[in-house]
């Protein structure tokens, strides 16, 4: 590639990098700005499944595998079914998303794509250099989505849990699932002194994604996740099935301030920028909302490190992670109290950062006395 300076460089072609590219290329303001996307892999497979909820019908509805209007929460001795309206819970497989971006945006004017490995990113006061195996590239606006867990390992101020899971797309011989309803969380499984649950997204009566998920500090051996799925299916009388696809994930749950690595000319985005919802591990809609804000911000031409997205919900997440990391075996009871004592839509609004202060007080009031004391203790420790 002869050109080595670009108005924007996007490092990484995962969800956040491609969503940013899409947003830039759909806004006429940036038509004359050059954009370079650097990604080492060929993105054309279902290597990700993104799930999210929203009330509108705008976000990739033509690409969805499935959307649901009803959900269920379960834990030991407790079950709650609920209507999600006005929300829909949506599943998007990555191959269709990649194809859309490649067809509609990667081949547009002033857009460049380089398939190579990024070796290093060096940022100076007003310019950042991206060092790759195919040369060096420069910009005053570099967006890095390549997640580096290393800084998390050398600090203790912010707890670090993981949402880690293995999922099977299974096809059963006879109808076993209700395709009109998701099982959002089922904690009625052995917890093993951690926070463990099953997550089931039925696509057809005989086809579903079944995930064994943990919110905890340490990963398991792959065999343990798969054993968990198998045991769960057998507990529901499901023995005769074919595993058509497997997937796995490991998403950081932390309030670590990734933005401290930003500079005048470098902004970390996606998981690398702390855009994952720390208390749940959901990232996709958070990223869309943040990119919408970022597009508005870029038109101001301010330095990238002045872009901020923190609000009081980040502090709520921090307190929740403080409690969940100290009392990981109690996670199922914390979530059960929330779903038992609150309308589910209030919880989803809270996770979206759209509740009022009075609603947030009601959510806090739903915990029992011991649980409230855990949060009070976490609050005081953060305060002092």
What is the string of SSEs from the N terminus onward?
Answer: EHEEEEEEHEEEEEHEEEEHEEHHHHHH
Proportion of β residues? 25-35%
Order of the strands making up the biggest sheet: 6-5-14-15-16-13-17
Instruction: Give the name of the CATH architecture of the largest domain.
Output: 3-Layer(bba) Sandwich
Mean pLDDT, rounded to whole units? 96
**Percent of residues in helices:** 25-40%
The main β sheet shows up as: 7 strands, mixed
Counted by DSSP, the helix tally is 10
Q: Low-confidence segments, ≥5 residues, pLDDT <50?
A: none
Structural shape: globular
Q: Give the number of domains.
A: 3
**Helix-strand makeup class:** alpha/beta
Distance between the termini: 54 Å
The H-level CATH homologous superfamily of the largest domain, spelled out, is: FAD/NAD(P)-binding domain
Per CATH, the class of the largest domain reads Alpha Beta
Topology:
Blueprint: E1 8-11, H1 15-25, E2 35-38, E3 49-54, E4 66-68, E5 70-75, E6 78-83, E7 88-93, H2 94-104, E8 111-114, E9 118-123, E10 128-132, E11 135-139, E12 142-144, H3 150-153, E13 160-172, E14 181-186, E15 195-204, E16 207-216, H4 222-235, E17 241-254, E18 266-268, H5 284-298, H6 312-326, H7 331-341, H8 344-351, H9 357-365, H10 369-383
Properties at a glance:
five-stranded parallel β-sheet; D-Amino Acid Oxidase, Chain A, domain 2; 384 residues; FAD/NAD(P)-binding domain; 18 strands; 30% strand; 3 domains; alpha/beta; single chain; seven-stranded mixed β-sheet; globular
Explain what you see.
Helices cover 29% and strands 30% of the residues. The chain has 384 residues and is an alpha/beta fold. The protein has 3 domains: 8-48 and 92-154 and 255-306, FAD/NAD(P)-binding domain; 160-253, D-Amino Acid Oxidase, Chain A, domain 2; 312-383. Helix 1 packs parallel to helix 5 (284-298). It is globular. The N and C termini lie far apart (54 Å). The mean pLDDT is 96.
């Amino acid at each position: 590639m002869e050109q080595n300076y670009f108005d924007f460089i996007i490092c990484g072609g995962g969800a956040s990098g491609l969503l940013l590219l899409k947003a830039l290329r759909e806004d006429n303001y940036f038509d004359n700005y050059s954009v370079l996307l650097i990604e080492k892999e060929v993105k054309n497979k279902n290597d990700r499944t993104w799930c999210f909820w929203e009330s509108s019908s705008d976000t990739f509805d033509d690409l969805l595998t499935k959307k649901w209007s009803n959900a269920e929460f379960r834990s030991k001795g407790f079950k709650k079914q609920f209507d999600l309206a006005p929300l829909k819970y949506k599943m998007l497989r990555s191959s269709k998303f990649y194809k859309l971006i490649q067809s509609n945006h990667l081949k547009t004017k002033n857009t460049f794509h380089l398939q190579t490995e990024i070796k290093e990113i060096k940022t100076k006061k007003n310019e950042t250099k991206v060092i790759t195996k195919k040369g060096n590239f420069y910009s005053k606006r570099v967006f890095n989505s390549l997640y580096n867990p290393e800084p998390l390992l050398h600090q203790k101020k912010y707890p670090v849990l993981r949402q880690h899971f293995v999922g099977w797309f299974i096809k059963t011989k006879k109808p076993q699932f209700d395709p009109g309803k998701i099982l959002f969380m089922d904690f009625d499984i052995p917890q093993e002194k951690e926070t463990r649950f099953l997550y089931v997204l039925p696509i057809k009566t005989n086809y579903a994604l079944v995930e064994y998920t943990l919110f905890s500090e340490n990963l398991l051996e792959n065999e343990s996740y798969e054993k968990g799925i198998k045991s769960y299916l057998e507990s529901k009388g499901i023995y005769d099935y074919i595993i058509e696809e497997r997937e796995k994930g490991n998403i950081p749950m932390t309030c670590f301030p990734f933005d401290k690595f930003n500079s005048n000319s470098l902004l970390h985005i996606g998981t690398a920028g702390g855009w994952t919802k720390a208390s749940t591990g959901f990232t996709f809609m958070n990223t869309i909302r943040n990119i919408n804000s970022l597009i508005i911000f870029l038109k101001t031409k301010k330095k990238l490190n002045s872009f901020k997205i923190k609000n009081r919900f980040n502090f709520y997440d921090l307190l929740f992670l403080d409690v969940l990391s100290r009392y990981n075996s109690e996670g199922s009871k914390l979530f059960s109290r929330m779903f038992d004592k609150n309308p589910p839509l209030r919880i989803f609004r809270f996770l979206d950062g759209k509740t009022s202060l009075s609603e947030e007080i009601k959510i806090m009031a739903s915990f029992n006395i011991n649980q409230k004391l855990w949060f009070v203790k976490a609050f005081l420790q953060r305060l002092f």
